[in-house]
Amino acid sequence: MKVSVIVHPNSKKSRIEKDLMEMLHVYVNAPPLEGKANKAVVEILADFFKTKKNEVILLRGTKSKNKIFEVKTK
């Protein structure tokens, strides 16, 4: 399944929230440098969807706050 998220790096607490439009907002405490925030988002999404980290793939938005991930679920 494809998941669109909005990433908020450098947050105090890592969490996932849904807004009124059912868009996922992922807050991570990692900085947006050298892919650290992307790695943190992958870890949080894997935990949220109860899957492995290697089954969460960043498809689009490597250097953007708006990202699209593919999550392989069973």
Q: Could you explain the architecture of this structure?
A:
The protein is an alpha+beta fold. It has a single domain (2-61), classed as Conserved Hypothetical Protein Mth637, Chain: A. 18% of the residues lie in helices and 35% in strands. It contains one helix and five strands. It has one helix at residues 36-48, and strands at residues 2-8, 15-18, 24-27, 56-60, 66-71. Strands 2-3-1-5-4 form a five-stranded mixed β-sheet, with helices on one face. A hairpin with a 5-residue loop joins strand 2 (15-18) and strand 3. The longest helix has 13 residues, at 36-48. The radius of gyration is 11 Å and the shape is globular. The mean pLDDT is 94.
What labels describe this entry?
alpha+beta, 18% helix, five-stranded mixed sheet, 1 helix, Conserved Hypothetical Protein Mth637, Chain: A, 74 residues
* Number of alpha- plus pi-helical segments: 1
In the predicted model, the low-confidence regions spanning at least 5 consecutive residues are none
List how many beta strands DSSP finds. 5
Widest sheet: strand ordering: 2-3-1-5-4
Brief description of this entry?
With 74 residues, the chain is α+β, with helices and mostly antiparallel strands.
Give the arrangement of secondary structure elements:
Blueprint: E1 2-8, E2 15-18, E3 24-27, H1 36-48, E4 56-60, E5 66-71
